[in-house]
Amino acid sequence: MLETIRRLSPYLDGIRWRWTAGLVSAMLAGLVALSIPQVIQQLVNSVLHPGGSPADVWSAVWLMAGLGIAEGLLIFGRRFFILPPAAGVENRARVALFTRLQRLPVSFHDSWPSGQLLSRSVGDLSLLRRWIAFGTVMFVVSIVTIVVGIILLLNSSWILGLIYLAGAVPIMWRSFYFRNDFRSASRLSQDQAGDLATTVEESVHGIRVLKAFGRGGEALEGFRGQADTLRGTEVRKATVLSQFIALIVALPETVIGISLAAGVYLVATGELTVGALAGFFATTAVLAGPVESVGQLMGMSLSAKTAIDRHFEVMDTAVDIADPIADPAAGAGADSSAGSGSASSLAFEGVGFRYPDAPAESEPILRDVTLRLEPGETMALVGLTGSGKSTLVQMVPRLYDATSGRVLVGGVDVRDYALLDLRRTVSIAFEDATLFSDSIRNNVLLGAPAEIAGPDAADPQTAQDLLDLALDTAQAQFAYSMPEGVDTQIGEEGLSLSGGQRQRIALARAIAAQPEILVLDDPLSALDVRTEEMVTQRLRTVLAGTTTLIVAHRPSTVALADRVAVLHDGAIQDVGTHAELLGRSAGYRFIISSFEEDKSIESVMDSGVITGMMPVVAVDEASGSGSGSSSGTAHGHGSEGGRP
Ligand SMILES: Nc1ncnc2c1ncn2[C@@H]1O[C@H](COP(=O)(O)OP(=O)(O)OP(=O)(O)O)[C@@H](O)[C@H]1O
């Protein structure tokens, strides 16, 4: 336990003296409580006898009242001193955990369920706060009260005191087993609470799927099963705790009964005064509270230890994608090119990759990938599904690191860059467009350089110009016709937008980053062919000097690229222009023919032959550019293209 507390020391800044002051207050309150029976003893022995003066009685009354008020003030002092810094510890630990989660690589997040992280950052840390604010102090106070109380008991009568102490022996023996049982139940319940949080998170996230497939009942059954298991564990935990508390309450009560018989005998034989006997029993009554709370506090401390252990399991996970530390020249050298405005080359040299959680005997996802993009070049990456395209492109901003070979940006290994500089140089947009519950403006400018869009940016107009350019290039002008324009809040994860709208905002975010290298992992898949073509053409004009690697699933995208690389089964099969590859690569022709099928369907739809509805949709997705049909305003987005 001491080791666990020592680990908390980085979070304990500024708490030590307040905690000590709170502890002193709590101890004094405990001592005041203990002194009350002593006053009763004095009262019985020296005041309550024939001929005792009323003035003595009044003095005793005032003394008792004074002690009661003092105890109340001291209890207030304990809370006053400890509660704010304990909340500070919780806050520091929570911020540290969040910071760690941001730094940990994507592979960590692949393998950790979100509910486990949620329960660690919320439930566990409030348990920690309650333990620091209440558990630690009351534990020390209870132990001190019990020790002082036992000294007083021995002082009242050493025989009765020893009888009382004898009850502690079985408790200490039992506490050993209690600790082990309670600790394992506590760990299990906190882990199961994390699993339950994961299930809630997944069900809420996937609510559309569950509803659409009518699987709410099954989801509920699964949830109920988990909740029942957790309830079982909680009951087991409570049973272990209550059995222990029953023992530590029942045993002292039993020995008090024995003490009573022995005490009456001692008074009868004149070996003990009535006052000492009254003081003895008043002291045991005061001790009853601390003795009982020791059981509760032991349970709380064990749960807090589990919470701290769970916290440090995340904090101790190695950040294996980190800034280079050894040779600053390597990183700083690369850094000097960042932001200079010159385009960078991008190269993969013998890159191999295997996911960390892949079975040891499995084939690597990527094998000896060697590819070079010249500065300003646009290269399309094509391949059948599952060939490793997304995996490959995620290595450029170091979302994953190659397990063999290297990725070079501007001729420098990406592992030699300061991460922030690398991620300023490279910008990425994914097929699965993740937006945040914020305005469109903030979502887009999230990617922009801090000097342009940060809180200390000199000229707000520059940020506005960048926003306009990014939205325009991504064909996301629909943003201007939303209720509050670009300041419209887009709801949790942007789910109030259509898939195509979300993708265009995510693309605008990548453009607003003004990167030297732009990586697009099929971010236009939800767009109709026309809009996608317009976006691709605009990208080529606006980002003329930007090196672009684009995972493509459309012939139009492929045709606009300078060169195309074919990835097959984790290896580069061929690289060339679209025309060259069509001529020489059967694999490429096969991939393109599967694209062409999609395109032909879309073309037929687009011409309105099938439903006559499509032109309206085309206008909608084309952001009102008029490319679909002049009549297309049925969805109320006909003005998407027109900015205010
Ligand atoms: N986080 C992960 N952990 C383990 N394996 C993964 C992970 N992500 C992807 N894979 C596996 O890696 C392989 C390549 O996946 P990847 O997403 O790179 O393919 P892709 O070519 O982009 O496919 P698509 O065109 O369907 O998007 C797949 O077999 C997939 O199962």
- End-to-end separation in angstroms reads 64 Å
The largest pleated sheet is described as:
6 strands, mixed
Summing up helix and strand content along with how strands pair, one would put the structural category as alpha/beta
Give a list of the ligands.
Answer: adenosine-5'-triphosphate
CATH superfamily of the largest domain: P-loop containing nucleotide triphosphate hydrolases
Helix percentage range: 55-70%
CATH topology of the largest domain: Rossmann fold
**Uncertain spans, ≥5 residues at pLDDT below 50?**
326-342, 600-644
Oligomer: single chain
Total strands: the figure is 10
CATH architecture of the largest domain: 3-Layer(aba) Sandwich
Mean pLDDT: 82
Radius of gyration (CA) equals 36 Å
Number of domains: 2
How many helical stretches?
A: 23
Question: What is the class of the largest domain in the CATH system?
Answer: Alpha Beta
Strand order of the largest sheet: 6-7-8-3-9-10
- Shape summary: elongated
Report the β-strand fraction as a percent range: 5-15%
Transmembrane segments: 21-40, 60-77, 131-152, 158-177, 244-266
Domain ABC transmembrane type-1: 21-303
Biased composition (Low complexity): 621-636
Subcellular location: Cell membrane
Q: How would you describe this structure to a colleague?
A:
- The structure is a single chain.
- The protein has 644 residues and is α/β, with parallel strands linked by helices.
- The protein contains 23 helices and 10 strands.
- It has 2 domains: 84-315, ABC transporter transmembrane region fold (Up-down Bundle), CATH 1.20.1560; 343-621, Rossmann fold, CATH 3.40.50.
- The protein has helices at 2-7, 16-47, 54-103, 106-111, 114-121, 123-156, 158-166, 168-205, 207-212, 216-268, 274-315, 328-335, 389-393, 419-425, 440-445, 450-453, 460-473, 499-512, 529-542, 555-560, 578-584, 586-606, 614-621; strands at residues 346-353, 366-373, 378-383, 404-409, 412-413, 426-430, 517-521, 547-551, 563-568, 571-576.
- The chain has a 6-stranded mixed β-sheet. Strands 2-1-4-5 form a 4-stranded antiparallel β-sheet.
- Residues 326-342 and 600-644 have low confidence and may be disordered.
- Residues 110, 355, 357-358, 365, 383, 385-391 line the site of adenosine-5'-triphosphate.
